[in-house]
Specification:
534 residues; alpha+beta; Four Helix Bundle (Hemerythrin (Met), subunit A); 4 domains; 5-stranded mixed β-sheet; 4-stranded antiparallel β-sheet; 18 helices; 49% helix
């Protein structure tokens, strides 16, 4: 150690004067200095052990004693015993053990006793160090395999730089496994060089650092050397890598747009190229990349958690960096495409896009259903307005004009993801939520239009048609069918609505009207017709 026992005892005496702990506590030094590592900047880690069943806090107290940072933690005998028992109970399922538990056990087992050495010895005897070395050997090996197999997958996909990064991560964990087999169990990778020095095999140490630092290596070199230090089952065998469905990931196509929903929370809109590659992925088949471009796209699907990979006979790959947060699904910055959605699906930023939409999936589904239904109401209002003008029902025409403006604004706000919507009478004022569309002024004018002659009626109808066309140009509804003109146009309307209703129902979004549930229940058909008649 870099400090003598007398120095440590002096630091402990000063520390104990400044904390609320009596002489009955056992005390050990743990951490890097106890391991024989450390330097002049290393903190002093004292663990105080209460001979009791108490639940003592995990958070350390930090003091500064004689120019050194001192961390004081507490544990009861029961807490330490439970930690060891969890490791013992795992048996051969060491991969289920979390690194925090293992770190606490390791620090205790390798600690240097300063007070009540008899009690410290009894605690350590509950988990023999040789048994703990075997656990750490297997635990690091398990993690190394996942990283090295993941590196092989990235090699298949042509992502060689990323494959090397994961190969090196796997190799570091392979060396930690190898070192644990030689009694070096300290978890923190930063001291690996000193662990390898103490392990004593210079050729192994030197080859590891060459692979970690040299520019002239690849992922396959890491895999090969890992096998040399005992990590089996990681040879480059692409045929063993298969594509799996990721839990909670579903595909929804509306119009020409493919959407992928992740965990009922996130919606990704795919560009034309990415949608084509997505459609070519066959679950349960070996991983393959027909072209470098397709390989890069599949790798993006993998990073986003839209697919998973499995190693045949060994289950799903779950790679993780050494003592770092698990590599969970990536969430990129939200797409800047506006509006957020159209009748035909979410806009994308390009043919290679996998755009994360900037609103929760449930709100996306609700907004989309409202957008479509608002367009149906536009058609219904148009039919009512035409009839009122034909019969010279001027007050009816004024009310229907106002209604047509409001349902158009419903569709516009929905296209930008506004949901729930403001009250109808407040819609025109809430256009300030959106980028300037140039539609606020005409909307206000049309809401207050007066019709008392056929000429005024024709003028109002023309202005309304121009207004609706402008809204539909923004919301991608320019080709929305004239729903009530014929059986065919109504059928087309139902088909559009059914696509979005299915997605909305899957996301548990509120349906825009009660009758929508009947359309879902009937599989998109009208409920009362027989013989396929429309």
């Amino acid at each position: 150690m870099i400090l003598t026992e007398d120095q440590l005892q002096a630091l402990l005496d000063t520390t104990m004067e400044r904390i609320d702990a009596g002489p009955e506590y056992a005390v050990v030094l743990e951490g890097s200095i106890a391991e024989g590592f450390g330097n002049s900047s290393s903190d002093i880690d004292f663990l105080l052990i209460a001979d009791s069943d108490a639940d003592l806090p995990t958070m350390p107290s930090v003091l500064f004693v004689d120019g050194r940072r001192v961390e004081v933690r507490t544990r009861s005998v029961r807490q330490l015993t439970q930690q060891f028992d969890r490791v013992i109970a795992a048996g051969n399922r060491v991969s289920t053990l979390d690194e925090d538990l293992l770190n606490r056990c390791q620090r205790m087992l390798r600690s240097f006793p300063l007070r009540r050495k008899d009690l410290v010895g009894k605690i350590k005897d509950q988990l023999p160090f040789e048994s703990f070395c075997a656990v750490m050997h297997k635990w690091w090996a398990h993690r190394a395999r996942h990283c090295l197999r993941h590196a092989s997958a990235l090699t298949v996909l042509g992502q060689h730089e990323e494959a090397l990064s994961w190969g090196r991560a796997g190799l570091t964990q392979s060396m930690k496994s190898w070192a644990a087999g030689k009694g070096e169990t300290y978890l923190e990778p930063k001291w690996l060089s000193l662990q390898l020095d103490r392990a004593g095999e210079v050729s192994v140490r030197d080859r590891y650092f060459e692979l970690i630092s040299s520019a002239d290596v690849g992922a396959s070199d890491c895999v090969e050397f890992a096998a040399r230090v005992g990590i089996t089952g990681c040879t480059y065998e692409p045929e063993r890598l298969t594509v799996e469905r990721a839990p909670g990931v579903t595909t929804w196509r509306t119009g020409a747009r493919t959407h992928v929903v992740r965990g009922k929370q996130d919606v990704f809109a795919l560009g034309a190229n990415t949608a084509k590659v997505w459609g070519s992925v066959v679950f349960g088949r070996p991983l393959a990349a027909p072209t470098p471009e397709a390989g890069a796209i599949i790798a993006r699907f993998l990073r986003l958690g839209l697919i998973r990979l499995s190693w045949r006979g060994a289950g799903t790959l779950v790679p993780a960096l050494p003592l770092a947060a698990p590599a969970g699904p990536l969430s990129p910055p939200p797409s800047a495409a506006a509006p957020v959605l159209t009748v035909g699906g979410a806009p994308v930023t390009g043919v290679d896009a996998i755009d994360l939409l900037p609103l929760p999936a449930k709100r996306f589904g609700a907004s989309a259903m409202t957008l479509v239904w608002s367009n149906v109401l536009i058609e219904n209002a148009k039919e009512d307005l035409t009839g009122a003008l034909d019969r010279q029902q001027w007050r009816v025409a004024e009310l229907v004009t106002r209604r047509m403006v409001q349902v158009s604004l419903r569709s516009l706000l929905s296209a930008y993801g506004v949901n729930p919507l403001p009250p109808d009478d407040d819609l025109v004022r809430r256009l300030d939520l959106l980028p300037d569309t140039g539609l606020a002024a005409p909307a206000r004018e049309l809401e207050s239009v007066r019709v008392s002659t056929p000429e005024e009626g024709r003028s109002a109808l023309k202005r309304l048609e121009e207004f609706v066309a402008a809204v539909r140009a923004i919301t991608g509804a320019g080709l929305f069918p004239s729903s009530f003109d014929s059986a065919d146009t109504w059928r087309s309307t139902l088909d559009i609505g059914y696509d979005w209703l299915r997605l909305g129902a899957y996301l548990d979004a509120d349906l825009p009207l009660t009758e929508a549930q009947d359309l879902l229940s009937s599989g998109g058909a009208q409920p009362h017709l027989t013989g396929g008649k429309t």
